[in-house]
Each structure stands twice: as structure tokens, then as C-alpha cells.
Specification:
Distance between the termini: 59 Å
Order of helices and strands: HEEEEHEEHHHHHH
Largest sheet: 4 strands, antiparallel
Number of strands: 6
Oligomer: single chain
Radius of gyration: 19 Å
Number of helices: 8
Strand content: 5-15%
């Protein structure tokens, strides 16, 4: 309810991909969803998977890239309405190792994308990037809830000011984390490449 008809196809494709991704054990318990691992104690890669699925959805629907502005950041994305920050960063990661590897791991729930990224950026950097993406996803959800609170609860006065202050803080956190994550991607990849330059032939 409330979703425009033209948006339903986008949502349907996204959910179809999630259905294809499902990997369950003998008891029928979900253990893996594309790039997302469900372990006994913690879930890893939820945001990475959401970004990848949305990129794949945009590709299936042949959506054109557009420049959008979120949280004072202008960025290109094929998904301006759904997870634009995540999609932009996941696309940057895919640029390093290839879209084919990203989409193969996304659809068939394997570690090829993760392994390839660790090879070019390092395990520590990959873990930090993955954590940062989860932070972005969770923080955006908090902003959505607070915005709903402002509208639905008819917040006024000091209560409205507190909610608006929280939203502003979260937006700054998002911008800072996006920039920091992008920096990690750039610096670890190029530092790793520079370390391979041991001969005149490799320098050339």
C-alpha cells in the first residue's frame, strides 16, 4: 500500500534476487544470502549484499546512471531511490575486481568476490569496509524512523528540536563514514599495487 505501480517492478526484481540467493541447511535454516553470512553469533555482509542486489536489480531493469545528492555528497548511481550510498561504494569495489565476480557471488552465494577484494585490498581493509557499509545501512534506517517520528507523532517544540538534532548528527556520521570508506578503498588498493612494483618492467 502506498507504493506507486511503476515502483513495484523494481521491488519485485530485488526480492526475486533475494529468493534466488537463499542457501539453507538440511533443517531449512537460512545460512547464507548472497554476500551475507548468517553465523551463530553475528551476521556479516548484510549491507554489502543489499547494495549488490540493488546494483543487479538496476542492471536487470536497464536503469541509467544519474548524479544525485545525499547528505552533501554528489555521486553517480543507477539506483537513486534505493541505497544510493551503498550502491556507489559497492560499485567502486566491483570496479577493482569486476562486475562479473560481484554478480556471481551475489546470485550464487560464494566467496569469490570477498576473496578477490581481500587479494587487492587486504583482509583488514575488507572487514572495515564491510563494517562501514553496515553502519551506513543502519544509520539510514535510523534517519527514516526519526523522520517518520517527526511527521506521524506531530513533534513540536523541544521534542522536535531533539529529533532534528539527532537526524543532523546521523547525516554527518553518514557523510564522514562514506568518505572514510571511499578513502580505505582507494588507499589500500593503490598501496597494494605499489608494493608489487619491484622491477623496471612492472613499473613500466
Amino acid at each position: 500500500q502506498g507504493v506507486p505501480l511503476e515502483e513495484l517492478e523494481k521491488l519485485a526484481v530485488h526480492e526475486f534476487i533475494h529468493y534466488i540467493q537463499e542457501t539453507k541447511d538440511a533443517k531449512g535454516t537460512l545460512i547464507r544470502l548472497g554476500l551475507c553470512d548468517f553465523t551463530e553469533f553475528k551476521t556479516y555482509g548484510m549491507a554489502l549484499n543489499e547494495g549488490a542486489v540493488q546494483l543487479l536489480t538496476a542492471k536487470v531493469l536497464k536503469q541509467e546512471s544519474d548524479i544525485v545528492k545525499y547528505y552533501d555528497i554528489s555521486l553517480p548511481t543507477t539506483s537513486p531511490s534505493y541505497y544510493p550510498l551503498l550502491c556507489n561504494l559497492v560499485q567502486q569495489l566491483a570496479y577493482l575486481v569486476g562486475n562479473d565476480i560481484l554478480f556471481d557471488s551475489t546470485l550464487f552465494s560464494n566467496d569469490q568476490f570477498k576473496t578477490s577484494l581481500i587479494e587487492v585490498c587486504g583482509k583488514k581493509a575488507f572487514s572495515k569496509i564491510q563494517d562501514n557499509l553496515d553502519f551506513l545501512l543502519n544509520t539510514e534506517e535510523k534517519i527514516i524512523k526519526l523522520n517518520s517520528q517527526l511527521v506521524e507523532d506531530d513533534c513540536e517544540g523541544s521534542k522536535a528540536e531533539k529529533v532534528a538534532h539527532k537526524i543532523d548528527k546521523y547525516k554527518k556520521d553518514l557523510k564522514k563514514t562514506f568518505m572514510a570508506t571511499q578513502s580505505i578503498i582507494f588507499t589500500t588498493y593503490f598501496n597494494n599495487e605499489f608494493n608489487k612494483l619491484n622491477t623496471t618492467e612492472s613499473i613500466e
